[in-house]
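Private note to self, pasted from the team thread so I don't lose it. Backbone tokens:
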């Protein structure tokens, strides 16, 4: 079962809880009150606050924060599903990260969450034919958060990117809903070939720290890839793959590895010295 943090709120939903946390923090830490007011409290919803938060992170001399906020807001208005995905991503942090202390730290500071939200806007821009702006956002995300996701990559909702540093996801990769991954994960190609060349990660998959999945292969739903593994072949659903190169070490694995965040491999522990 996934761990749920109970956030007591007089308001409903993720946005209501975020407002409550921001108000409480502003009272407890007056030095942060101005920032919290600008980023969260003066906004009328998650879309407005998120566009402001992303813009203040990615804005720079070449593309101002004001311009960045305008195209974030444009994306959210045209595709409300992006905001719904952000809500699911925040909920994933609360459910799966034992260090989480509420929605507010994730919204303000977690670079896995923030980089994923910038990617969602970049992906929308890519689909609108604005490829150079999308690539600019990819570059800024890589500089700021050490996360490099190609704007064309397709990312589902309820994704948890823990720690995030060193994550690389290629152009034709697909990551379905409810996936969890840790730092230094690579979803890459195997050479200089063009076309569809990157992995397809199924629903509810857990990708351990440093896992490398290479080539146009599928990791089946609810599979688990052990930390440090190099996966070059298909992984069946509900199976655990481990090693360099990876091999199947257990089928079936736990029911929802991405939600339980269980990185152990009890099926082979008896052989570890």
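Design output:
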């Amino acid at each position: 079962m996934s761990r749920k943090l109970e956030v007591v709120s007089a308001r409903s939903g993720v946005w209501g809880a975020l407002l409550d946390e921001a108000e409480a923090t502003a009272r407890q830490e007056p030095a942060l009150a101005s920032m919290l007011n600008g980023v969260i409290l003066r906004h009328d919803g998650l879309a407005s606050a998120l566009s402001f938060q992303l813009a203040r992170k990615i804005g720079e001399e070449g593309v101002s924060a004001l311009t960045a906020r305008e195209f974030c807001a444009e994306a959210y208005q045209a595709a409300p599903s992006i905001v719904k995905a952000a809500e699911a991503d925040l909920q994933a942090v609360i459910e799966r990260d034992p260090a989480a202390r509420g929605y507010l730290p994730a919204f303000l500071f977690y670079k896995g969450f923030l980089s994923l939200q910038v990617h969602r806007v970049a992906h929308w821009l890519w689909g609108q034919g604005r490829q150079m702006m999308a690539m600019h956002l990819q570059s800024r995300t890589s500089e700021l958060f050490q996360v490099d996701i190609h704007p064309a990559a397709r990312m589902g909702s309820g994704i948890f990117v823990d720690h995030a540093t060193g994550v690389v996801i290629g152009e034709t990769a697909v990551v379905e809903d409810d996936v969890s991954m840790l730092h230094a994960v690579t979803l890459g190609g195997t050479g200089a070939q063009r076309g569809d060349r990157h992995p397809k990660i199924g629903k509810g998959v857990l990708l351990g720290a440093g896992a490398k999945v290479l080539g146009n292969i599928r990791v089946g739903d609810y599979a688990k890839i052990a930390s440090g593994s190099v996966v070059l072949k298909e992984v069946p659903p509900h199976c655990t793959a481990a090693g360099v190169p990876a091999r199947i070490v257990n089928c079936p694995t736990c029911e929802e590895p991405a939600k339980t965040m269980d990185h152990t491999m009890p099926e082979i522990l008896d052989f570890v010295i």
